[in-house]
Amino acid sequence: MIDLAPGHKAGLVLDSPVMVAGGTVAYGDALPPGWDLSALGALVVGPVTRHPRSGPAPPRLADVPGGLVLDRGLQNRGVRRVVRRYARLWERLGLPILVQIGDTEPGEAASTARSVMVSSAVAGLELLLLPEATPEADRALVQALRRAVEVPLLAKLPLHTSPERARALVEAGVDCLVVGRPPRAIARTPQGPFLRGELYGPAVFPLMLHALERLAAAALGVPLVACGGIHTQDQIRDALALGAVAVQLDSLVWVEPGMAMEQVESLSPGK
Q1: Do residues 120 and 91 lie in contact, with contact meaning Cβ atoms separated by under 8 Å?
Q2: Is 80 exceeded by the pLDDT of residue 256?
Q3: 8, part of any domain
Q4: Which residues are 53's β-sheet partners?
């Protein structure tokens, strides 16, 4: 068992160190058929924002060596519609649900957080941080969420996040750090124009490991979760060896859902 929030009064205890990352299976409705959800530690759903947001105009996807560039922005239905449509699904899934919050304005983020807590399945929130946010903006956002809800709070960091910024987030009240948010990238699409989005796939893995090791060495006092380009059991073990207590799978779930389930089951209790 793994506790992602040992400093929180309620904790966030998972039966498995393997989770599915936010943005990977939408709100849980895009889970691959046939998956044994009891083998997962948790499911991150979202992102969710207070108001609906439309996605960017196509093309949104471009293949690159070692992965893909995806531009989807923060497309979502808005928190009221999300909760109305999916709260019961989260409860039926039978595992801890972490909701990824995409709002960056403190008041809106707090409102979104309070709204998703109508579901008893929501065990924590994951804050999606902007690469360019100032320390003051980080602090205001975290403190607003801490005042709004009592569940554990994770922060998903850009890969270039400095130990100083990470430490300030912990001091503001974050219980766990996720390393990290996919890096920004540019690729030419088959249709011709350049696509500016986020990079997913195995090419991200060594970048993520570098960021993970750097933050682990800083001894920040909270658990670290590795996310980015993890496609094999050896990569899961490498992430755990370099300081993570758990991992989140993203692109593997899209390209090889059966293999992703194998990785989940390989680290489940009793395996």
Answers
A1: yes
A2: yes
A3: yes
A4: 76
Rounded CA-CA distance 265/40 in Å is 8
Q: What pairs with residue 179 in β-bridges?
A: 157, 226
Residue 78 lies in a domain: yes
Using only the alpha carbons of the chain, give its radius of gyration: 17
Is 181 within the bounds of a domain?
Answer: yes
Nearest to residue 202, comparing CAs of 174, 243, 230?
A: 230
Residue 271, domain member (yes or no): no
Determine the residue type at 133: A
**Rounded CA separation 144/159 (Å):** 24
Residue 179 lies in domain: 2-266
Check which CATH number belongs to the domain holding 113 and give it. 3.20.20.70
Q: Kindly list the distances between the CA atom of residue 74 and the CA atoms of 9, 104, 199, 233, in Å, as whole numbers in the listed order.
A: 31, 11, 15, 30
Q: What is the pLDDT of residues 23-56, one digit of tens each?
A: 999 999 999 998 989 899 999 999 999 999 998 8
Q: What is the pLDDT of residues 123-142, one digit of tens each?
A: 999 999 999 999 999 999 99
Q: Please give the full DSSP string across the chain, using - where no structure is assigned.
A: -EES-TTSSS--EESSSEEEPTTSSTTTTTPPTT--GGG-SEEEEEEE-SS-BPPPPSP-EEEETTEEEE--TT-B--HHHHHHHHHHHHHHH-S-EEEEE---SHHHHHHHHHHHTTSTTEEEEEEE--TT--HHHHHHHHHHHHHH--S-EEEEEETT--HHHHHHHHHHT--EEEEEEPPEEEEE-TTSSEEEEEEESGGGHHHHHHHHHHHHHT--SS-EEEESS--SHHHHHHHHHTT-SEEEE-HHHHH-HHHHHHHHHHTSTT-
Reference 224, options 141, 159, 268, 147; nearest CA is 159
Query: Looking at the 3D structure of the chain, how many domains does it have?
Result: 1
Q: Are 18 and 96 in contact (CB under 8 A)?
A: no
